[in-house]
Amino acid sequence: MLTEVADDALLPVYPPFPLRAASGHGSWLVDEEGNEWLDAYGGHAVASCGHSHPDVVAAIADQAAKLIFYSVAVPHHGREDLARALVRLSPAPLGKVFFCNSGAEANENQLNLARRKTGRTQVVTMLGGWHGRTVGTLACTDGARYEAMARRAGVPLSRKVPFNDLAALEAAMDETVAAILLEPVQGFSGARTVTDEFLGAARSLCDKYGAKLLFDEVQCGVGRTGSYTAAEHFGVVPDAIAMAKGLAAGLPIGAVLAVPSLVDDIAIGDLGSTFGGGPVVCAAALANIDVIEREGLLANVRDVSARIVAEASKLPGVVQVHGRGFLLGLELDRPAAEVQQALFSHRVLTGTSTDPRTLRLLPPLSFANDEATLLLTALRQVLS
Ligand SMILES: Cc1ncc(COP(=O)(O)O)c(C=O)c1O
């Protein structure tokens, strides 16, 4: 017997924004009534070179017309070109690449690599850290509901230390630790930035105890800090980096970049994914990289971010501006959810965070100066 289909067949996931999307271009989302919304949420930090950039659209269409998909069972130049491009854009010696399909999967795989290499289980992560919804990444994610899900699955929880607390990090380290996993700029916790001192100590402690340093750059990578990797921005080279979100400008992708010493004994069959590194997603990611370089989007992030930080810091009700580049957290003197709601009536999209008073800005890397003016004007009106 066929099931009767309800109107609301979808399970609830995120609190929905008050519009129904019809199309998008650049920093703008167009609703079903034809209204344009300024997207300072960047399609969930995914629309890196803007929504539906014509070059990305053309690359997808061109590749889809030739071959939509074949797995890694058949070599394809797009997959190899993308791996080379990511290595070129990352600090040496990050030189080996594995493709999967999401941020959680990339984190899960880099954790597997660290545990495999060290023969250890324990992982040290940060309070405020968010790493995904597979059971392995839930165990590393801060928050009672996520830890409860990992516990129910029987997965041991990571040791969590306060972000940027050096003494706590030292105390958490010993010879049972396989890896320290952290976001150089924590996204969901409200764009909290790692200190140079803490990151340097994390590197030294990993070297001292034979553990691996893993960066989760799912949200803060792919140009969001103003350099292609956050690792480059902070000048510390981890043993691996997880990337996803903005990497293919909107198609699902995950990637692990690793130093050769982490993966020198990987054999055929140790890693795998049916869809990872498919031709269409690789074509989109290559076109995205091309746009980021040709349109100077990293410089745009640095310049426009500096202006947003300077002007937002002076707005009434803004206590402090956290973060780097286009991963910014406006710490407010009032609930961020109320400000987000008020911005909706100006047709401006922003994000909240796990800190109830921090509003998150994650615009596309192409967010222009005049779009920053619109955002700042709307913020001023809402906050005044
Ligand atoms: C820092 C970070 N890591 C991992 C993830 C999980 O990525 P995905 O939703 O693609 O699995 C996210 C998603 O928001 C994230 O922000």
Estimate the mean pLDDT confidence.
97
Largest sheet: 7 strands, mixed
In N-to-C order, the SSE pattern is EEEHHHEHEHHEHEEEHEHEEHHHEEHEEH
* C-alpha-based Rg, rounded: 21 Å
Strand content: 15-25%
Bound molecules: pyridoxal-5'-phosphate
SS-based class? alpha/beta
Q: How much helix is in the residues?
A: 25-40%
The CATH topology assignment of the largest domain is Aspartate Aminotransferase, domain 2
Report the CATH C-level class of the largest domain: Alpha Beta
Per CATH, the architecture of the largest domain is 3-Layer(aba) Sandwich
What spatial form do the alpha-carbon principal axes imply? Answer: globular
CATH H level of the largest domain: which superfamily? Type I PLP-dependent aspartate aminotransferase-like (Major domain)
The count of helical stretches stands at 14
Taking strands numbered 1, 2, ... along the chain, how are they ordered across the largest sheet? Answer: 4-12-11-10-7-5-6
Number of strands: 16
Number of structurally distinct domains: 2
How many angstroms does the end-to-end distance come to?
Answer: 58 Å
Question: Can you tell me the residue ranges where pLDDT is under 50 for at least 5 consecutive residues?
Answer: none
What is the strand and helix layout of this fold?
Elements: E1 21-25, E2 28-31, E3 36-39, H1 42-45, H2 54-66, H3 77-88, E4 96-100, H4 103-118, E5 122-126, H5 135-138, H6 144-152, E6 159-161, H7 166-172, E7 177-182, E8 185-186, E9 192-193, H8 196-209, E10 212-216, H9 230-234, E11 240-243, E12 254-258, H10 260-263, H11 279-294, H12 297-313, E13 318-324, E14 327-332, H13 336-344, E15 348-349, E16 358-361, H14 369-383
Parallel strand pairs: 3-15, 5-6, 5-7, 7-10, 10-11
Antiparallel strand pairs: 1-2, 2-3, 4-12, 8-9, 11-12, 13-14, 14-16
